[in-house]
Amino acid sequence: MSTTTLIVGSGFVGRAVAARLAAGGGTPVLASRTPPPRDTAPWVRLDATDAAACARAVDEVRPDRLVLVHGPSDVTWCEADPGRALALHSAAARHLTAAARGRRTVLISTDNVFDGSRPDNDETTPTAPANAYGRAKLAAERIVGAAPDATVLRVSLVYGWEPADCAKWLNFFAACAHRLRAGERVEAPRDQWTTPVAVEDVAAVTAAVLEPGAPGLLHLGGPDRVSRAEWAEAIADGLGVPRSRVTRVPRAAGRYASRPTHTCLTSTLLDEVLGRHGLRVRGVAEGVRDLLEAAP
Question: For the domain with range 4-158+197-222+264-281, which CATH number is right: 1.10.10.10, 3.30.565.10, 3.10.105.10, 3.40.50.720?
């Protein structure tokens, strides 16, 4: 019998999770305020801040389990309106865990729950958000983490392809690759580090922790710690364009000022989960190579 999973959030990560579950024979259903840009899975309209709407969606879909990838996830937007960001994340987490009524639930969270002072945040590192997005996600974590059968999956910077004609690219890889392919220059911080993880690997691990026996808190970061400038240069190398098109800038000089210095995740638990399910997480060089070979 096919397992039905309600995925709240039909953006970049939510669609990848849906594709992974469908490929494994499951029945994913996406839920969001607006429909996804392309047909990846069945979809229902949902305002996750509306308690009655959340209850109706669960009653309609009758999922066996839930994945919460709800937003807003734009760090700059959250910094501009921190009160609303906190309210939106908290309300959605509260309403959906209540509607789930004990069903298996996974919340996709973020490395921004840490203050950026350490390059090695594992599951035992105390949280200390340095920005509004991190504070909003941490509030959602505490709500979902108190549910009877839930896992909080903190994910480092996620990357993958997005269409070239998107109004706004949601991940660093796609923005760099499209601009470099178009002959444009790219500015990238030399002093903001991350542990990037490919969206397909995020989807695979999410599918794994939906199964019984997963820890209540798990970190998922890629095996490589790189600055955004180093990463942009690796993308340039993969595309065969000069590294000189990448300009190294200080983090404080642009849109990355509200990001922590280190958005890096390590884990004391991930290897066991990966081994149990026969999975691996790719490093930056392999991930970039695989994406560029499959370039749209």
Answer: 3.40.50.720
3-state secondary structure of 35: coil
User: What is the pTM for the complete model shown?
Assistant: 0.94
Residue 4 is which amino acid? Answer: T
Q: What is the pLDDT of residue 166?
A: 75
What's the Cα-to-Cα distance from 180 to each of 149, 186, 238, rounded to whole Å? 44, 7, 11
Q: How many residues does the chain have?
A: 296
Q: Which tens digits make up the pLDDT trace of 86-131?
A: 999 999 999 999 999 999 999 999 999 999 999 999 999 999 998 9
Q: Which of 76, 74, 73 is nearest to 108 (CA)?
A: 73
The mean of the pLDDT values for the chain is 93
List, run by run, the mean pLDDT of 10-residue segments along the chain (296 residues). 92 95 96 84 94 97 97 89 96 97 97 93 96 96 96 96 79 93 94 95 98 96 96 93 95 76 95 97 94 84
Q: How far is CA 96 from the centre of its chain?
A: 18
Domains of the chain, residue spans: 4-158+197-222+264-281
| CA–CA gap between residue 178 and residue 166 (Å, rounded) | 10
Unique residue bearing structure tokens 């024979």: 25
Q: Which of 236, 219, 228 is nearest to 272 (CA)?
A: 219
Q: Are strands 27-32 and 43-45 parallel, antiparallel or unpaired?
A: parallel
Do 189 and 250 form a contact (C-beta atoms < 8 A)?
Answer: yes
Q: How many CB atoms lie within 10 A of CB 279?
A: 14
- Angle in degrees, 0-180, between the axes of helices 270-277 and 199-209, rounded to the nearest 10: 80
| Structure token pair of residue 185 | 């220059």
